[in-house]
Amino acid sequence: NSHLYKPSIIYQDAKKASDVPLATIRENCVASLRQLEAMDPEFGVFVTLLCKPNEKERGLLTSAENETIDTTIEDLLFRLSLRMSNRNGNSNNNTLAACLHVVEYLLRKYDIHLRPKTASTMILVMLPHHEEPYFLRILQLIDL
């Protein structure tokens, strides 16, 4: 049943999430990474590494290529987690929204909830956010 629809932490309704094209989710991710890049220049690197429009599906990549992507995604997840916890100033809600848009793209494009390495990293970096509604959605997506 859960595999009929696309994974999402932004949309409560899985069917609604499935109606959003990957291209739109990618555009939101790129815009969000650019917003985060204003606070930390390292975020800009991930646009080039993970947001290529014609990137092959994970199943078509070699295990070495997948390993490289997983490592890059883990690095990004740790950086996002730090920004999500950064509660100083009024920009927190905008920063949180930007981080969630990036995670949404990683879920849809790279199936990070299905791969043991990235799924366990996602749980680890999201633990400090266990009281937030998106934490529960992340746990629901991951096959524990």
Write the SSE topology.
Layout (H helix, E strand, L loop, with lengths): L13 H6 L2 H16 L5 H8 L12 H23 L6 H19 L5 H11 L6 H9 L3
Helix pairs in contact: 2-3, 2-5, 3-4, 4-5, 4-6
Please summarize what this structure is:
This protein is mainly α.
Features:
144 residues; mainly alpha; 7 helices
Task: Summarize the structure in words.
With 144 residues, the chain is an all-alpha fold. Helices cover 64% and strands 0% of the residues. The chain is built from 7 helices and no strands. The protein starts with 13 loop residues before the first helix and ends with a helix.
- Note the beta-strand portion: under 5%
Rg, Cα atoms, Å: 14 Å
What gap, in angstroms, lies between the N and C termini? 16 Å
Detail the poorly predicted runs: none
Structural class: mainly alpha
Main beta sheet strand tally, sense and closure? none
Number of strands: 0
The number of helices is: 7
User: Which descriptor suits the 3D outline?
Assistant: globular
| Strand/helix succession | HHHHHHH
Instruction: Please bin the fraction of helical residues.
Output: 55-70%
Q: What's the pLDDT, averaged over the residues? A: 89
